[in-house]
Design brief:
Length: 480
């Protein structure tokens, strides 16, 4: 009997505790978790619809930096957008003037997410095939079209890509922004910046006596200088343009950084156009960007240098790749290979050390698309070289890597492969191991900076200038 009574008392106490917890819960939350989530999603939906002139979305892709979009949402889960993609990748089409409509949805994943679930301009950036967005094969620009909503603050929406963790900022467009965008402003702002870059050869800032080369680009902005140890330092941050060169009298737009970049103790958050020139904006001051007629320092391209490679995409570098290289070297090789149902996609010149001989060499890689196989291949040639007393380098031989890509296509690409070292053969049949060389013609080059003359193209550029023909230059984007 006592045992049963004790049991009843404990059961009663447990019931009181449960009831008390329920009442406590009721006091803390008036709605269930599902109701609260639905309310939050409805709030986000209302925010998307609240900007009558649409939204400006800046997205920091992992491969190529910042892109600017204009988005207009409606209550039917449809979104209309324009984008600045064509400014640096014309193959994308008229993304700044031809609106595309697709669908979107808000969904509760690990975090409330904004998902663009049918094809849009955002999907161009995320495409893994570099030929569709100017990125690298198998990863494209490493961008996103599904985004977690991190915060809404002072009218702006902060998001992050769900797959590649891209930084994204959405701000309400003003009526002036919308009008400029409808008139093609997303491309015009790049053209305006491009005009500045063409007219300003070597822009730099001075911090405590150190001159720092600045490339005020639309997608990435870089700062390059010689540090106190005599080493060249190169840092870059994702950036994007605003529309001020279309909505005001500014000749060029302000450049905003996704994250501040520290340069010699100064945190620089962006570049502001003051009516005549750019200013680098720090926490305490604005540093004027000046122009130098001459390079601030030698181009550090080569083995054991800051940059190990130059990357050349002729389609994306129109204006920076100049004559006579285009007409006498690149175009004949391109056309000849194209007749064989193969199309040059890009070229790279990368420096290595031969582990057997201990001598440096440069490897030329030409990546082409096979129309029959519907895939890319890369043909490669190795060029040993010596460095001369005056700092020039001489490529004194050429070797294939032993696969059919080089052996079968060398004759088609002869202007390109002969550019660094000419070669004729007594016999060129069977396979590369059976080839007999005849006459080797070494070529000597000066490695130097190449001015960026392509509107909207970002990055630092270098090239191989032929010593015996100084107008001839193989140019490319510098890569570490």
């Amino acid at each position: 009997m006592k045992r049963n009574l004790l049991y009843l008392i404990m059961l009663s106490l447990l019931t009181v505790v449960i009831v008390a917890c329920d009442k406590t819960e009721d006091r803390i939350f008036d709605q269930s978790p599902d109701e609260r989530l639905n309310a939050k999603m409805a709030e986000y939906q209302q925010t998307l619809l609240s900007s009558p002139n649409g939204w400006l979305m800046s997205i920091n892709s992992k491969v190529n930096g910042g892109y600017l979009f204009w988005l207009s949402f409606n209550d039917k889960n449809r979104v209309t957008m324009l984008a600045d993609i064509e400014a640096t990748f014309p193959k994308a089409g008229a993304t700044s003037t031809v609106p595309i409509e697709s669908s979107y949805k808000l969904k509760a994943l690990l975090a409330p997410s904004l998902i663009f679930d049918t094809y849009s301009y955002l999907h161009i950036l995320a495409d893994p095939q570099g030929e569709y967005n100017g990125g690298t094969n198998s990863e494209g620009l490493k961008s996103d079209f599904e985004f977690s909503i991190l915060d809404i603050d002072n009218g702006s929406i902060y998001l992050q890509g769900n797959y590649n963790n891209c930084e994204v900022l959405m701000t309400p467009a003003t009526p002036q922004d919308a009008e400029a965008i409808m008139n093609g402003g997303l491309k015009t702002i790049h053209d305006n910046l491009g005009t500045y870059l063409v007219n300003t050869k070597y822009p730099f800032i001075d911090i405590d006596g150190t001159k720092i080369l600045v490339r005020p680009e639309s997608r990435n902005t870089s700062f390059t200088y010689i540090n106190k140890n005599g080493e060249l330092t190169d840092n870059a941050t994702g950036s994007f343009l605003d529309l001020s060169s279309c909505t005001s009298d500014n000749k060029s737009s302000n450049i905003h950084f996704f994250s501040p970049i520290e340069v010699l103790g100064k945190k620089i958050s962006g570049l502001k156009w003051n009516g005549e020139k750019y200013l680098a904006i720090t926490e305490n001051e604005a540093i004027e960007i000046s122009d130098s007629a001459e390079p601030l320092f030698a181009c550090p391209l080569g083995y054991n240098q800051v940059f190990k490679e130059i990357y050349t995409d002729a389609d994306a570098m129109q204006g920076t790749l100049t004559e006579p290289f285009i007409s006498t070297i690149y175009t004949p090789a391109f056309n000849r290979l194209y007749k064989n149902s193969r199309k040059i996609q890009n070229m790279s010149c990368t420096f290595f050390m031969n582990v057997t001989t201990g001598e440096p060499y440069m490897q030329l890689g030409i990546t082409y698309w096979s129309m029959s196989a519907e895939r890319s291949y890369t043909a490669k040639w190795n060029y040993p070289y010596r460095t001369n007393d005056d700092g020039t380098i001489t490529f004194y031989d050429r070797e294939q890597t032993g696969v059919s890509n080089e052996f079968n296509n060398e004759k088609s690409l002869i202007e390109l492969v002969d550019y660094f070292c000419g070669l004729t053969y007594k016999s060129y049949s069977g396979s590369w191991s059976q080839v007999i060389k005849d006459v080797i013609t070494p070529h000597t080059f000066r490695i130097d900076w190449v001015p960026n003359k392509t509107l909207g193209l970002s990055g630092l550029f270098g090239g191989f200038y032929q010593v015996d023909n100084t107008d001839m230059c193989w140019a490319g984007k510098l890569k570490k």
